[in-house]
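This week, study the protein below.
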Amino acid sequence: MTHTRAPEPRDPHDDGRARMRAVVGSHRIEEEIFGKAFDGRIVRRLWQFVASYRRDVVIAVVAVVIFTCTQLSIPLLIRYAIDHGMGAGGSGGGTINMPVLSMITAIFAVVIVINYVASRLQEQVTGRMAENVLFDIRRKMFAHLQRVSLSFLDKTEVGRLMSRLQGDVNSMQEFLETSVLSVGDILLLLGIVVVMLWLDWQLAVLVLSVIPILFLVRVFWLSKARAAFMESHEANSVTNGALAEAINGVRAVQAMDRGQLNEQLYQRLVDRNYAAQLRGSRIAQVMVPIVDTLTGLAMAVVVLVGGMMVVRTQIDVGVMVAFLFYIQRFFDPIRSLTMQYSVMQRAMASGHRLTEVLDVAVDVRDAPDATPLTGADDGSVEFRNVTFGYNPAEPVLRDVSFRVGSGQTVALIGPTGSGKSSCMSLIHRFYDIQDGAILVGGRDVRSVTQESLGRHIAMVLQEPYLFTGSVMENIRYSSHWATDDDLIAAAQAVGAHEFIMSLPQGYETQLDERGGNLSLGQRQLVSFARALAADAKILILDEATANIDSYTEMLIQKALQRLLEGRTGLVIAHRLATIRNADSIVVLQQGRLVEEGNHDQLMAENGLYAKLYSLNFASFDDLTSQSSETPRSVTS
């Protein structure tokens, strides 16, 4: 049973602000998480994936440490060459010392090679690790989404899940690739401070006095940046959502001539998104010129103060030159860490959304002592005083009891919303009931494994879902063990073989998304063949002939009757012609079983079924108010 929510009316003059407010209001947790550049809980969850690649992490960290050491050593080598190789130091005597210069040059060359190798190794290992973690997260999320209860999927937009599987995972990959670089930047900062203090602590303290200024600017910048990044994130989400909605509903848009108006509304969202992204970009770039200005200020201090100290022979020329190199390198990691702030914010927000999906409870699980259904179990189905609601406080089935014997065919009919499709979902245990019991093969569905239950039951839904691939692959989808001859026989049995052979490549014809290159009736026939090829003991047809024309329906009726021999069939249909020959007919109304019997018995009772049959193609909804039948529970 599908629950849909009527779309809220939109103001044509709305520029997207109302939707923006709605998004913010419905995602307050995400807003709080997005405001953090580091979240220990998210990092710990991410480490569960990274831990599988500890060796790569160790190699990357070692490579970063080596790279940092080479960066720190280069100014020291230059200082030594100036003071001792060129005689610029206090004891150099003003002469060129070629042996010293030759030695320094050789060491310098080795350091450059080590620097390159370490940098290259770190990039390769980090990139490989990030890709592996990326695929592991996606695999785990995919596997988890295959197991989560349908109650979660009923309430969650597919677009949101796709966004998390793609965009959010990519954000985590970006974070992983830059996290090791961040470690290197922090090590380089600490190393530069230590070396400058070692060279001359007085000059170092003077130079580092600009740090408090940078700190105060950064504190002010963070508050502005956080709000700007949040706004740009929300604006982008709303714009993408509007785009997905317009694409999915393009038929309705064209049918109602909404194209031009939708284009105007979307343009307003795009303009708002552009403005938000531009503000975020501008604020993100503010720190770069500030850092550059402070770098120039610090270098000016070294030149002026350090120059006077050289004249007074308080320090050597090489020390002052080394300070200039270190100051330039000191602000590089600060600039890099500033630019990585937005990356870390996006990663923490993405990590929160990913863990939110991974933490969704799997409500329908196999019991610890669950055993599989076997060939010895028959195909009987029984409802015993079943009460169920998607929201337990609002049951859609109330105390429903009926039994379908093995090999029998039972039809469920009733007005829209009476609980027919819910019964079919419960047999397959897509949901767990609140009260009562459902038995398949005489065993409670909660006591058997879901895998074996799936093999025991085949379903054909009202909206046939075909996958991208060949016709043959679609028929084989639930019966991978079947031979091509078995699949062709199933297609022949439901009358699909003739139209399949008329396709350009027959059974190897590739289908478009959801079988878009087949007619609705053809897609339904392929889904019939797929269900029958599974050779299950129980066959569920949920409005399965609703999309097939009367002529095609007539052709498959005999085939269905023949194929249902030896199988238990449960059928939902608004076309009474498709269920009048059922062994038993169960009539539901407002979640209760009100009538049960075969066609002749129910016609003799002159109740709701008789009225439905007399009108045949009439809407069940129009008859709800006409029926004065008192609801009652009937057990066969």
